[in-house]
Design a protein that fits this description.
Organism: Shewanella litoralis
Helix content: 55-70%
Largest sheet: 10 strands, antiparallel
Number of domains: 2
Order of helices and strands: HHHHHHEEEEEEEEEEEE
Radius of gyration: 34 Å
Structural class: alpha+beta
InterPro entries: Cell_wall_metabolism_enzyme, Dup_hybrid_motif, M23ase_b-sheet_dom
Number of strands: 12
Pfam families: Peptidase_M23
Distance between the termini: 54 Å
Shape: elongated
Keywords: Coiled coil, Signal
Protein name: Non-catalytic member of peptidase subfamily M23B
Number of helices: 6
Amino acid sequence: MITRLFVKASIIAGFLILSCTANSADLASRQSALKSIQAQINQQQSSLKDTAKQREKLINLLKSDEQAIAKAAQKVNQSQASLAAVNTKLRELDKQQVELAATKSSQQDTLSKQLSSAYLAGNHDYTKMMLNQQNPATVERMLAYYQFLNSARIQAIKQLKQTSIDLDKVKQQQVASQQKLNALVIEQKRQAQQLSKEQGQRKQTLTQLQRTLSSKGAELEQLQIEEASLKRIVQQAMVTAKANPTMDGLANQRGKLKWPTKGRMSKRFGSRRSGQIVWKGSVLSAPEGQNIYAVASGKVIYADWLRGFGMVLVIDHGKGYMSLYGHAQTLLRQPGDMVKSGESIALVGSSGGQSEPGLYFEIRNKGQAVDPAYYCR
């Protein structure tokens, strides 16, 4: 039985291997582009204009790398959820099997006792009892007793038969669930390998990008571009949010909300970032892959990659309030989705060119950034 399960799982694995050809081709293409850009940087390092062009190419390549990571991480997350569901199902089936086996054993014992009683009682000849002119009332009672035993015996046989059928069904479901589990384990290993490859490609791209940002001037310019990109997205989100007038906002939630993920506060709202640029939100250092939760109910109005902030998700809470979650490894919700407070919406990552994993978190009111610490405890 176990051998057949592994054979089937191996066949499934063969099909899964074929499915990763496109991913490998895309990765090879981005590796080739990175080598080409790196060669040009080495040749043109002295030219600021050319370096800026290469930086833009690297940022676009970083975007592709991080989007690929997000896709791979989402698949890993989905397969983990599927594995948990299948394992839960297997535990339930195992419990059912134990209970049904115990029921079957009990029913067999009951039936055995009934058959023994019927055998012992079978020495009585009803005709002789009548001819011997035994008391009719006694004969009637005996006949009723034998009929009762016979009916009970038939019912016990039916119950035992049904229990045996149910037990067989449970065993078949266990086999099917085990096959599915084996296939999921193989698929998850493949997804984890793909995620590792994508992360390696991103690391190379990020190294080259950081070389083009070696000066303070270049770094400041980059931050200004990123801030402008975020401002544009917030303005677009405000336009979208006007279509959701029924939500209550966050005005009554000061000091009541939970932080979207557990972590250490590494950057505080309003602290200096570079030059005159200050942090418009808070950064929470947290393990990669950790869940990020919606701080309040609302509607997702943006979910995509944003320069400098990586994979970003924005939730409209109504009355001009919105929350923003950046640097995610992957996003678990799409624009238009309604989410509830405490619902998982993304996973912690380091997208947007970050060297360490964490969450960038903002709360805005009518487009203006406010200190998240006023609302979260």
